[in-house]
Structures are given as structure tokens and as C-alpha cells.
């Protein structure tokens, strides 16, 4: 899975960190998750604790989108086979399928081919009837991959707004509140299009807290955000959005455009929602691997958020406490965390949240071991951080692996962080982790290996 693993495993601690990363990503892959969450017994489809009699429906259709949507569709085909009559998913990680059409889009900024794919998806939704069972495959990345700009909002306007939001430091809930109100599909609008079909929604959560309305901007779940909320986000982060975007949001606030469907809307009467995988899916597998390798594992949180570089400082501080005092766990230990950090972009470089996390951690580790003259002392804490989909930010790296030897010139690390240009810095130090697209998209995964003194 890790393409450059051999180049990264210079110590036993690094090997353990990579083992934990690989176990977590594999546990969150749709082929693993769907096998555990979805079963077929004769003509009875079971999803978690809910059952559906397939003989009660004329058609079974798979619809959805996101980074891992095609992998979900392929896993569903492996279980349902020719019981699937049709389907469309939009993704940036296509795989071969037999009955579900895979359309390609782009992430994290929407594109014309994503618009075309979303249009085709909506056409398939419109064809559903009250005798249709729709299984939706909704995964992280769906917000960008299924753009469907609404009203007078153009793709160009949506792209510039998305770019500005991603650079602002806004969290995913805030970003998606805006996206929902600029789309003909998000914020429960897909549920309206597919009604009165029965909908089984399979969600792969890449958001802290697993709010279904935030995952891929909630295409088939109720939305409690409003046009007013969306406009407030633009104002809060001083986003200079295109005129058509601001005009749509202002018209929505004035009541000239219908709100996204909220709780109690009839569109959701026949919709059931199942979060089949989330950040803890990944963390639990990584925790088990750490224990198997002889390390005491401790999950710090699956809900880490905020600025990546600041979160790194806190993580390193906990690891240092573990090494120095044995609190809150005795070494050898592996500390794990999930969630999704953000980066407020002030420079013009290349990187991503996990690479900024790793660079900041490496800088802190170097400072903490400045007086150590032996590399084995400086390797007592090893830090790995990746985006489980294999793409950190807009780079071709999943994240990075660092320790106390990574930063030899602290000033260059500080400059890379100041310019948001950490990717070249890490690449020059052979610290980047490369996996390619993994088919998994369940938040970030961070591993801190703490050896005994």
C-alpha cells in the first residue's frame, strides 16, 4: 500500500508506525466495510439492523458520489450482483464495475466533468419511482465531486468560492453550509429528486462527529443550515465571492428561494441512513496492530480539529509526557488520533494538513532533542500523519513520517510552514508517504510511536 515504504523504514519505530497506518486504511476500505455491514440472504437485504425485501421493489439502483464511491459500488455489486438494475456514481478514483456507471469528477475543487456526472446522477434520480429501492453510496469528497451548481451560479463562480473557502481556515461544516445552498443536489435535495423511492443511505464519514448532513454535504438527509448561515460564513471569513453567489444567498435569506429540506420534510419519509464506517473504524484497526507489535496503544481522540501545526504541538507534548513520566500510558506506546485539521493559507506553496502537522511535529521534536548528540535518542518519538484517501491537500502524497532527526535546520522548517510550502521541504528529507489513491476516505490518521528511554 505504501509505495515508498522501504525508503521510510529506517527504524523499528517507523516500521510500527507504517504498519498501523496500513492496517487503518485497509480496515476503512469499502470492500472490508461493505462485507461486514451489508448481507444478502435469499431476497432479503440487510444493512446493519434493517432489512429490505427485494421482491417488494421493481428496481434496485445505486446512486452516489465521493472519493470512495466507485469502490462502494464495486463492493455492492459483489454482494447484490444482477439484482442491481442500474446506477451512477461520481468519483475521482474510478474502478471497474459491471452494472453501476462510474462517472469521473475532480476534488477538492469542482470541475466541468463533475458537473456532467452530477447531472447524469440527477437524471437517474428523477427516473426513480415508488417501486424503486435506491442504495446511495455517499463518501467523503462528494461535495466537490457532485457540484450541480444551482440557479444562476456558474461552475466558475462555484470554483472560486470553493478555493477561497478551502484557503480560509473554515471548518468542513461551515464550508458545506455554503456548498449546500449553491447546489441542486446537496442539503437533502437529492432526496427530493428521488422521492418517493425507498432510500438506503450508506455513509462513509470523513467528518468529525459523523453529522450525516455534513458528509458530502448531506444529499439525502435533512439539512438544518440556512441561507443565512451560508452568508454568515462568507462574511466571517471575509470571502470575496462572485456576485451570482452572493445574490443567490441573499435571495435565499429574503425567502425568494426555497430553503434546503429540513427535519420533518416528506422527502425523508422513506429514507434510512447508516453510517457504516468512520474515523474510529480506522483507529480501532491501528490500535489492534500496535498492540500486536507489543506497544501499549492509546486513542487520544477521533475528533481532532483546528490548525494542523497547533494540533501537532499538542500531540508531541503528550508523547514527551509519556516518555518522561509514563503518563497517561507507559512506553513503549503508540498514541493514535483521527479527525480533520485545517490549514489557514497565508503563503503560496504546496502541502496539506497532514504534511503541516508532520513538519510542525518534526520542528518540535528537534527543539526537544537539541542537546542530544545520538540519533538513537532523537528517534525515541516517531510521528506519522496521513489523509486516509492517500491525497493530502492537493498533493500526490498521503502525508509524512518524521522523527527527531528530520529537521536539521529549524529555520528552514519555520520558513516552509510560514509559506505553506512544506511538501518540498519534506520531500527533500525523504519524509513524504506515498500511497496513491487508497479507496478509503475516513478522515486523517495520526500515529505517534514512543519508545522507552
From TrEMBL:
Domain MOFRL: 334-444
Keyword set includes Translocase: no
Gene Ontology MF terms in the entry: glycerate kinase activity
Residue ranges constituting the MOFRL-associated domain according to the UniProt record: 17-250
Pfam families hit by this protein: DUF4147, MOFRL
InterPro entries for this protein: GK-like_C_sf, GK_N_sf, MOFRL, MOFRL_assoc_dom, MOFRL_protein
Domain of life where this protein originates: Archaea
Keyword terms of this UniProt record: Pyruvate
Cellular compartments per GO CC: cytoplasm
Protein name: Hydroxypyruvate reductase
Organism: Natrinema limicola JCM 13563
Phylogenetic placement of the source organism: Archaea, Methanobacteriati, Methanobacteriota, Stenosarchaea group, Halobacteria
Amino acid at each position: 500500500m505504501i509505495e515508498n515504504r522501504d525508503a521510510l523504514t529506517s527504524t523499528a519505530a517507523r516500521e510500527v508506525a507504517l504498519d498501523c497506518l496500513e492496517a487503518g486504511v485497509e480496515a476503512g476500505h469499502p470492500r472490508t466495510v461493505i462485507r461486514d455491514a451489508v448481507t444478502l440472504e435469499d431476497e432479503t437485504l440487510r444493512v446493519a439492523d434493517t432489512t429490505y425485501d427485494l421482491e417488494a421493489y421493481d428496481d434496485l439502483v445505486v446512486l452516489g458520489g465521493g472519493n470512495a464511491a466507485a469502490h462502494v459500488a464495486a463492493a455492492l455489486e459483489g454482494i447484490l450482483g444482477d439484482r442491481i438494475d442500474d446506477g451512477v456514481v461520481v468519483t475521482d478514483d474510478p474502478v471497474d464495475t459491471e452494472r453501476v456507471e462510474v462517472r469521473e469528477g475532480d476534488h477538492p475543487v469542482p470541475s466541468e466533468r463533475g458537473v456532467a456526472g452530477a447531472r447524469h446522477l440527477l437524471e437517474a434520480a428523477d427516473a426513480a419511482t415508488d417501486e424503486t429501492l435506491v442504495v446511495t453510496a455517499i463518501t467523503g469528497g462528494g461535495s466537490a465531486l457532485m457540484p450541480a451548481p444551482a440557479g444562476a451560479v456558474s461552475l466558475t463562480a462555484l470554483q472560486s468560492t470553493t478555493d477561497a473557502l478551502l484557503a480560509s481556515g473554515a471548518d468542513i461544516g461551515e464550508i458545506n453550509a455554503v456548498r449546500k445552498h449553491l447546489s441542486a443536489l446537496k442539503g437533502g435535495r437529492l432526496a427530493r429528486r428521488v422521492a418517493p423511492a425507498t432510500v438506503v443511505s450508506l455513509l462513509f464519514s470523513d467528518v468529525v462527529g459523523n453529522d450525516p448532513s455534513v458528509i458530502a454535504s448531506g444529499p439525502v438527509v435533512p439539512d438544518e443550515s440556512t441561507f443565512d448561515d451560508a452568508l454568515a460564513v462568507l462574511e466571517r471569513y471575509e470571502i470575496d465571492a462572485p456576485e451570482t453567489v452572493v445574490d443567490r444567498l441573499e435571495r435565499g435569506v429574503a425567502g425568494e428561494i426555497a430553503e434546503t429540506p429540513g427535519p420533518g420534510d416528506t422527502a425523508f419519509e422513506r429514507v434510512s441512513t447508516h453510517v457504516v464506517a468512520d474515523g474510529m473504524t480506522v483507529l480501532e484497526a491501528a490500535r489492534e496492530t500496535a498492540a500486536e507489535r507489543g506497544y501499549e496503544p492509546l486513542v487520544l481522540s477521533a475528533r481532532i480539529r483546528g490548525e494542523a501545526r497547533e494540533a501537532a504541538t499538542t500531540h508531541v507534548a503528550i508523547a514527551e509526557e509519556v516518555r518522561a513520566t509514563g503518563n497517561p500510558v507507559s512506553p513503549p506506546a503508540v498514541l493514535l488520533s483521527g479527525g480533520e485539521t485545517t490549514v489557514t493559507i497565508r503563503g503560496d506553496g504546496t502541502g496539506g494538513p497532514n504534511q503541516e502537522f508532520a513538519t510542525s511535529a518534526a520542528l518540535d521534536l528537534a527543539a526537544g532533542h537539541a542537546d542530544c548528540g545520538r540519533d538513537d535518542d532523537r528517534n525515541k518519538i516517531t510521528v506519522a500523519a496521513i489523509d486516509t484517501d492517500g491525497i493530502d491537500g492537493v498533493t500526490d502524497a498521503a502525508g509524512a513520517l518524521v522523527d527527531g532527526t528530520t529537521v536539521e535546520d529549524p529555520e528552514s522548517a519555520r520558513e516552509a510552514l510560514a509559506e505553506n510550502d512544506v511538501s518540498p521541504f519534506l520531500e527533500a528529507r525523504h519524509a513524504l508517504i506515498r500511497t496513491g489513491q487508497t479507496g478509503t476516505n475516513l478522515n486523517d490518521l495520526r500515529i505517534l510511536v514512543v519508545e522507552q528511554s
